[in-house]
Amino acid sequence: MEENLGIQENEDKKATDKKVILVVDDEKPIRDILVYNLQKEGYETIEAEDGETAIKVALDNKIDLILLDIMLPKVDGLTVCQRLRHTLNVPILILSAKDEEIDKILGLELGADDYITKPFSVRELIARVKANLRKAEVAGQQKEPVVEEKQNEKAHNTISLGELTIDLDKFEVRVRGEVIDLTLREFEVLKYLANQPGQVVTREILLEKVWGYEYYGDIRTVDVTVRRIREKIEKDTSAPKILITKRGVGYYLASN
After folding, report:
1. Backbone dihedral region for residue 111 (phi beyond 0: left; psi -120 to 50: alpha; all else: beta)
2. Which of 106, 138, 171, 197 could potentially form a cystine with 255 if both were Cys, beta carbons 3.0 to 4.6 Å apart?
3. Closest CA to 44 of 111, 129, 107, 112
4. Residue 186 and residue 192: Cα distance in Å, rounded?
5. DSSP assignment, residue 241?
6. How far is residue 177's CA from residue 202's CA, in Å, rounded to a whole number?
């Protein structure tokens, strides 16, 4: 009897540990495919068919990740992304048939963590869901409060490269002394490059190490993120001095 109770407790714990994913798309066949495959992977799902419902559901429930279509009735997906990003700190993956660069840039700028264009492979989508959930979990653990040390004993964990300073404890970036407002993904890109200044890192490696993809996805996601970072940290984006491109290879941070 005690053994059976133990098994039941374990099963209950597994059930409560399930990640909850909000699937937002106005096309029921697409929602059905996504829900089926996500549940097969062990996730719980909640559905919304328009932007207005998506916002309400996301705020009323404990959501771990959002799959969000752009073309939605009532409230479009980009607006949904912008509104939810102000209150929720969960990964948002935009799904859209639009493959225009401006849509991708706008989606990432409004707070999306990833951008997947339709039609997409279910295998790739699941891989990106897992990668973004892992990254969110790691980031959450890093931000958990720790026992305060005496102020005079605590040393800031920072990286300084010329005009760029990265405070790893505060998740803060300063350029020429000014605090720069970066998304978590943008911060992680700079942090990864700063740990190896002057060393060129390929876009594929950035996808693997920063995005956590198990295989190479859309490398344009890296280019868009780098472009957004440059717009925030460079005086002249056409002649960057901090985040440099090695044409045909990848990116690196200037070491001085």
Report:
1. left
2. 197
3. 129
4. 10
5. S
6. 29
Q: How far is CA 220 from CA 67, 104, 112, 114, in A?
A: 19, 9, 15, 11
**203/237 Cα distance (integer angstroms):** 19
Helix (H, G, I), strand (E, B) or coil at 133: helix
Contacts of 11 (CB under 8 A, 6+ apart): none
Q: Which residues partner with 245 through β-bridges?
A: 251
Q: What is the DSSP letter of 211?
A: I
Tens-digit pLDDT profile for residues 129-176? 998 888 777 666 555 444 444 344 344 588 999 899 999 888 889 999
Tokens matching residue 231: 């717009």
Strand ranges across the sheet with 250-253 = 201-202, 250-253, 243-246
> Can you give the pTM of this predicted structure?
0.63
Query: To 5 degrees, how large is the angle CA 18–CA 171–CA 69?
Result: 45
> Is the backbone peptide bond immediately before 119 cis, with ω within 30 degrees of 0?
yes
Joined tokens for residue 204:
């594929």
The tokens for 223 are: 């280019």
**Per-residue pLDDT reduced to its tens digit, 75-90:** 999 899 988 987 888 8
